[in-house]
Amino acid sequence: MILKEAILANFVTLILLFGLAFVILFNRDYDKRNNRLFFAFITIVFLLDISDIGDYCLTAQDVLSPWRYVTSALGYTLRTASLAMIVTIVMRREKPTILIWIPVAIVALFVFTSPWTHWVFYFDDDNLFIRGPIGYLPHVISLIYVVFGIVMMIVMLKKVGLGEILVISFIAFISIGSALLEVLANAHFLITGAMVVSCTVYYIFLYVNVYKRDALTGLLNRRSFYSRGEDLAKSPFAVVSIDLNGLKALNDSQGHQEGDLALCALANACLNAGKKDFVVYRTGGDEFVALGKGVTLEGAEAFVAQTKRNLAKTPYMASFGCAVSTGHENFDTVLNRSDELMYQDKKNYPHRE
What we know:
By secondary structure, the protein is of the alpha+beta class. 64% of the residues lie in helices and 9% in strands. It folds into 2 domains: 2-209, Rhopdopsin 7-helix transmembrane proteins, CATH 1.20.1070; 222-346, Alpha-Beta Plaits, CATH 3.30.70.270. The chain is built from 15 helices and 6 strands. The strands form 2 sheets. A 4-stranded antiparallel β-sheet has the order 4-5-3-6, sandwiched between helices. Strands 1-2 form a two-stranded antiparallel sheet. Helix 1 runs antiparallel to helix 3 and helix 13 crosses helix 14 (297-311).
């Protein structure tokens, strides 16, 4: 009867887990690494849900079962592991290291030794849960993961965009809220439900964003560029046209892989030059455009100068053209002017300054 009650309480969560797993497995057009990360995440949440169901059933017994230590320890460990996996997904562009998983290992060490140490938790002879002297350690580490994930999103704002930060903030809010409700209201199965909803929302968001970003560089694409351009035309803005020099020769002599490296190098040089003022787009094969709302000509020229300094650390070169609008010009007019200046600059190739 208790098992039936637990399964019914988790019915929607389990169905959503299996549905999302089905979508990920058969969504072969999406980034394979992202698919692997999300599949690992829902696997962790599935195991967490199973351990929570087991713990719920064992809690109802009048006599303590040794298996309750196992289900409780798994629950603590998998909760922190699910948040560590979210951080790993957030940092997918930064090649996160194994260090992210050290706090999970610490939690696992303390909770799985609690049957003997009683440091995190233990049970009395009547099967009642008793929190140990460091009983809130898993909760503190979980909170650290949430805060770290938000901080990383802010650091990577130009690469991921405000939308993804809002999604991560939503995940943080429902994760903290569900954890507090489980502790304060003695509720059950809230965190697993919150994690499944978080995973689904995040996966859908990233998949939709595939259509807004360039697959190679991660920059916003041509569709996003013209959409943004229509909005910028209502206020003063700056346009910087950028063209990677010698891409065709590079592809012909050293292969397209080397050409891809050159495009990514230019993208990173632009991103690192305009973290605050400019949004950078890849609008064509070797063509990039940076848009800055409210940026003056001096600001645009400073962006170009910094991009050139960044690019000088690589074997590659580019041409640039800057144009600004006072808010009374058509967007295409300003763009054409910056393109013309860029082509004039290209006549001086090869150059670095």
